[in-house]
Amino acid sequence: KKKNIQNKIMDDELEATLKNVIEQTTLKWVFVGGKGGVGKTTCSTSLAVLLTKVRSKVLIISTDPAHNLSDAFGQQFTGEPTIVNGFDNLFAMEIDPNLMTNKFSLGNDNMAIHKIISSLPGNDEIMSFFEIIRQLQATTFDVVVFDTAPTGHTLQLLHLPELAFKLSENFGSKFQEFSGMMQQFQQMAPMLGVPVTANQNLSLENFEVIQKLIETTWKEFTNPDLTTFVCVCVPEFLSVYETERLIQDLIEHDIDTRNVLVNHVLIPESDCNSNLFIKRTEMQQKYISQIHDLYGGDFHIVQLPLLEREIRGVKDISAFSQMLVDPTILAEGKHWTLLENKD
């Protein structure tokens, strides 16, 4: 059987595209993550743009404290879904942990609580988790794409539903013993859509509502029909190593992952005589081969080139997104002209 050289994949490997994500209409949560600096925002925004072609309403959320969505799209986003210029079905938002913490610790009497919460390790992930639960209840979007923080923060975020549910199970059985602490849960409840008046203590019934929301989130995260994680890396040792650690952790916690985007790949030109370029290309090819050895046959491995300039604005993102579903662009050298017609 003749090998498909154009797609640069072996016969026993999966198609080198993200069509499997685009075409899976049951997906509700799509996480895009990896090591810092590998191009997660470019990949997540490109994926969100592709999803607008097959879904009626798409939301992209940045859970990274160092937000990049506003810079990528060239418009300012806030902690509430905002329509992206040039689209009628794509919305974006950037979770502000400080703003979310303010919602948690209401009033001047709670300044001490506010300071404690805002300084706790993992506060960014906790506030992102609250926002996920809020979106889970809203259900106004067909699919939500997460432009995540670097790997370590993202793993903490994904582990929170399971941890929170197990804690709530133990905590709920001793509800009366922790009545003082429950007053603080009272302030959390409105953030999660659980109605509690200012003069009403959080009841066991309301606590069980919160517990149910956490359990639902956990179950949806571990349902491959609803959730998947797209890994992004660059062909370098540290990034490949961190990607392997990420994938093993996702598998251990039953979170679906089947796509690896290899970004910033150097594509040599025939007349290139730069020794540095040649050496870097050889190094990259070594790690690309390792990626195929590790994941070929089980993952869709998509190579994305390092281009002459950065991807910024809707037009660039839309052009770049084509390479996520059409491997012939890279195979035939069309990527060099992909961004030529920028206004």
SS element count, helices: 13
Uncertain spans: 1-9, 104-109, 116-121
Across the major sheet, the strand order is: 3-4-2-5-1-6-7-8
The helix/strand class is alpha/beta
Q: Sheet with the most strands?
A: 8 strands, mixed
Give the termini distance in whole angstroms.
Answer: 45 Å
- What is the count of β-strands? 8
Order of helices and strands: HEHEHEEHHHEHHHEHEHEHH
Percent strand: 5-15%
- The helix fraction, in percent, is 40-55%
- The coarse overall form would be globular
Nearest-integer average pLDDT:
79
Q: Whole-number radius of gyration? A: 22 Å
How does this model look, in words?
Strands 3-4-2-5-1-6-7-8 form an 8-stranded mixed beta sheet, sandwiched between helices. The chain has 343 residues and is α/β, with parallel strands linked by helices. Strand 6, helix 10 and strand 7 form a beta-alpha-beta unit. It is globular, with a radius of gyration of 22 Å. The protein is built from 13 helices and 8 strands. Residues 1-9, 104-109 and 116-121 have low confidence and may be disordered.
Keywords:
343 residues; alpha/beta; 8-stranded mixed sheet
Write the layout of secondary structure elements.
Blueprint: H1 19-23, E1 29-34, H2 40-51, E2 58-62, H3 69-73, E3 82-83, E4 90-94, H4 97-104, H5 111-119, H6 123-138, E5 143-147, H7 151-172, H8 179-188, H9 204-221, E6 227-233, H10 237-252, E7 257-265, H11 275-295, E8 300-305, H12 314-321, H13 328-331
Parallel strand pairs: 1-5, 1-6, 2-4, 2-5, 6-7, 7-8
Antiparallel strand pairs: 3-4
Helix pairs in contact: 2-12, 4-6, 6-7, 7-9
